[in-house]
Amino acid sequence: MVLFSGMQYQGRSKRSKTGARLRPRSKKKKSELGREPTETTVGEPRFRTVDARGNVEKVRVLSTDVANVATDDGTERATIEDVVENASNPNYARRNIVTKGAVIETDAGTARVTSRPGQDGQVNATLVDE
Questions:
Q1: Contact of 102 with 93, CB cutoff 8 Å
Q2: Is the separation of the CB atoms in 127 and 111 below 8 Å?
Q3: Nearest CA-CA partner of 49 in 118, 97, 100
Q4: CA pair distance 4, 57, nearest whole angstrom
């Protein structure tokens, strides 16, 4: 049963950890749905707004080339040049995908991303000591 195309079901699995069948306790609910990951890339800025739960709209960054980098003097807008490493997935660094915890190369220096671009709508980062 597919509720919405492009959505992922995040409810209880029909199978236990050992593989035994679990009997369903209820039908699928809309509140148990998730979405595909945003996978923000480095490039021309593109955004998408998404209706979230409650009276909330989330802004998702599909691609961006700007990061707000926190330095000792304050915060400055820096241009993202490259993704150096990404602990969540080694392929993300090769594909220039920015997620929280990714290390990016900017014109202000090497920085670690502290925000969630797919959730927050911007890339915030702090400088990493070399």
A1: yes
A2: yes
A3: 118
A4: 19
